[in-house]
Amino acid sequence: MIGNFKNEKELEEALSTPSQALIQQFADLEGDIIFLGVAGKMGVSMARMAKKALDISAKKNKIYGVSRFSSPNQQQFLEASGITTLKGNLINHDFLSSLPEVKNVYFLAGQKFGTEGNEPLTWAMNSYLPGLVAERFKKSNIVAFSTGCVYPLVPVTSSGSKESDPIEPIGEYAQSCLGRERLFEYGSNTHGTKSILIRLYYAVEMRYGVLVDIASKVKNDIPIDLAMGHANVIWQAEANDMILRSLKYCNSPAAILNIAGPEIFTIREVAEKFAELMGKTVKFTGKENETALLGNGQKSYELLAKPQVKLDQLIKWTADWMIAEGRLLGKPTHFESRDGKY
Description:
By secondary structure, the protein is an alpha/beta fold. The protein has 12 helices and 15 strands.
């Protein structure tokens, strides 16, 4: 078990430490890797995890990280970690065409925050760009980020949505993400591109995520809306590891895989735990509904192993980080939205 984190350096190391299973898989990896949209919330730690796994196996496969790099620090951090960075706008045809040919592609780019009121860019990033990437890298293996938001809200008494369940995206963000999936599926069907679509449910770390959202409100005496009264989360290091290893299951037609935490919890109970740990009182508004956005990750557990970091541990780490005034990314997840507006 990873200990508590004294600073961001320790946290970054924990988020990018590969499992033995990933090290063994990447020891046999053929070809180079490119991370498209590497500078997002998960990309930096995921790319560094891939690099560490290859280094441990003394592999020479090259890793590229592509982004606009609005924060130069992220680019410098990746370069210092041995990752070759390429700066540019993926939606620019000339830039996309200039990217190196690689065997393995991780597509992490997308638009969620600011979707409301900026729908054209959302559709361009989440649907149009995937079509371009599917064409540009049609000879590669593609692991593409999607989201559990393509599923409908399901009863909180259920075990969450499975890959075989009907999809019913709510709102333009979720609809555009379904567009992303369809474009990668089209590329896979048309060109035989081996692909896998990752429907992720709430990866969390100490600076960002559903637990940070709840803890921040408790700490700052902000009432917590219970409308989306249930959720499940997964420690980002384990999500990184599982997504990297999902490369093994790329297929044509494109495969689909949920990555989600195994413990469905109530927002009320988690908020009360944060209040206890931080010496605060908690205020609530609204009431729990009978449905929520919940994911069933059983298929991924069978293929890649069940996540080991428990919810109670994540709550404790997050509370300690908040008490110590650790830096936050300042990007609310809006997990409480039931109308798909972000």
